[in-house]
Amino acid sequence: MTEVTTMRNSLHRARAALEQRPLAAAVGGVAAVLVVLWATPASWQTSTLRFAVPIALAAIGGIFAEKSGVINIGIEGLLIVSAFSAIVVVDWLGDGGATAGVPNLWWGMLIGVLVSVLFALLFAIVCLEFEADQIIAGLAVWLISLGLAPFASRILFDSPNTANITRFENVTVPVLSELPVVGYLLFDTEPQVYIMLAGAVAGWYLLSRTTFGRWVVASGENPKALDTAGVDVRKVRYAAVLLSGVFAGLGGAGFGLGTLGTFAGTGDTVINGRGFIAIATYLLANYHPIGALLGSFLFAGLNSMQSGLQAAGYAIPTELIRTIPHMSVIVVLVLVGRTRLPDAAGDHYESGED
């Protein structure tokens, strides 16, 4: 009974913590939104939303994995394989065509998510069944993806870069798209932006308003109490890691099909560290999905500024301009301070252990 009481108290504290929006995430996120909406050119505003897609969705996925007790720093790799596989599928099925009545772009999105989930499953097996170090396993996922995608591209396209495909077209919502500022931003945009916004709300609801979400939180805070209550900790962690694969897959495939229309495998690939920025984003948001969405606008806005400065031809070294998004991550984390990790994050757990 003592363990059950502990479990109940742990769940109540976890729910209360999730329902309180972290001050740093709220202030920083709202400030970022205001900057994006009113202090930048329209082209920067729209590009900020598109650049936020992989960061926000990968961050939400990372929240589920880490809140369950599994540190998934391989999110960067999941973005890479999902973006690459989505482009390949569309090119193979036929750019601009449809299969079984469904546009090939959506088949690409589906396969991109499935490939991401497959890599997440392999990561989960290595960590949960073989009890590998989660940080090393996550790095392995990233490095394998970083090498595999360009290698496969050379086989398929004789180049580390894939062919160009037709991107998603804007989806316009009548009447609402005519609203000032938010109209063309939120109601006349690509499908991946709608997916990002819906994903943030769904992630928040699932984590803070459902029994599964409370299991996820308890798995990362007090797995023994969850086990005593009769819930399989391993299954909860598997589900959370696979869910991180779904969100990262949506982010990577959406970025490739909606924003880029191609995959470049040179250097750090077109993903270019966005998975690692996603990790910083959910730490900034203190594991709050809505906070992660707002935080992604901050880093995506700086990415847009970088692109805008390069396009404008300012007399600033290109190498210095490219560091802006990454340097901002360090600055923000220093200013925000330390985020409390779940108590059991990174720890292995066997059912019935003391």
UniProtKB/TrEMBL annotation:
Membrane spanning residue stretches: 21-41, 47-65, 77-94, 106-128, 135-157, 193-217, 238-264, 276-300
GO cellular component, one term: plasma membrane
Main subcellular location: membrane
DNA damage among keywords: no
GO-annotated molecular function: transmembrane transporter activity
Source domain of life: Archaea
Keywords linked to the UniProt accession: Cell membrane, Membrane, Transmembrane, Transmembrane helix
InterPro entries: ABC_transp_permease (IPR001851)
Intracellular or extracellular location(s): Cell membrane
Membrane topology: Multi-pass membrane protein
The protein, known as: ABC transporter integral membrane protein
Species, as recorded: Natrinema gari JCM 14663
